[in-house]
Write a structure and sequence with these properties.
Two copies of one chain form a homodimer. Chain A is an alpha/beta fold and 144 residues long. Chains A and B meet through helix 3, helix 4 and helix 5 of A and helix 3, helix 4 and helix 5 of B.
Chain lengths: 144, 144
């Protein structure tokens, strides 16, 4: 399955290692992360040679080619909020993950169009992500 | 004109005085800010008695009753990103304001569906907001 992964870039990179862990796990389960640039430590250098419009268009195009969106929403980020809303508008399944105890927006916590899960230790992410992706595969199988 | 004002809540309240300045200015020009709760210093106390779904539904309802959205996007915020995208999806005019030099998301800077303006001193906000609102009034007059 093609997955769009969303995490903070200009909002702050403190959780980059969690983003990397998540993307590696998703790929190890046989899926493809179309937005792998999000977990590149050199991303800001690479994007400095692109225009803002090129970055926007790349991300919206990749979202349009993805089957679902998985977002880490712990760090406040306008881009992540924008991408979650874009995925909801496209009727894509959305999973939002956050560190338990963080101040997550009501636009995520109160949103019936997204699956929201808190986690305390990194290892919990495996079962949450597996459960989400498995539920989609069941849905696709039942619909086909 | 009914205006939805969007600013960071759980992402951080450091620019609350700027949000208050903006809303007071918009109202002083004869418009109505439907989301005035965003600039209430006691907002988090008030919202603590509401469910996350109630907050989400209130904000989306108010957005649906607004003619345009004005967002202060300096502080990273998932809610602000979500609301800007929701307004774009509804074909609403959107103005995004940011302090010059801040790291604004490409989902804002590279987005042809929103008007984006940096400012250095607070007084610049008056002319930016006035220009945006006047352009909408001209558009509405020409279409009526």
């Amino acid at each position: 399955m093609k997955v769009f992964f969303s995490g903070s870039i200009r909002g702050g990179r403190e959780l980059l290692s969690v983003y990397q862990y998540l993307c590696t796990f998703i790929v190890s389960e046989g899926h493809e992360v179309l937005s792998e640039h999000v977990v590149d430590p050199q991303l800001e250098d690479i994007e400095s040679s692109m225009t803002e419009q090129e970055i926007f268009t790349r991300d919206m195009d990749l979202l349009g080619h993805s089957a679902c969106l998985i977002a880490e929403v712990t760090i406040p980020s306008i881009g992540v909020g924008y991408e979650v809303c874009s995925a909801v508008q496209r009727n894509m399944p959305v999973l939002c993950l956050y560190r338990s105890g963080s101040h997550v927006s009501s636009m995520i916590l109160g949103n019936r169009n997204v699956v929201v899960q808190g986690y305390s230790i990194r290892e919990e992410l495996d079962s949450i992500v597996l459960g989400f992706l498995a539920s989609l595969q069941v849905k696709y199988r039942d619909n086909s």
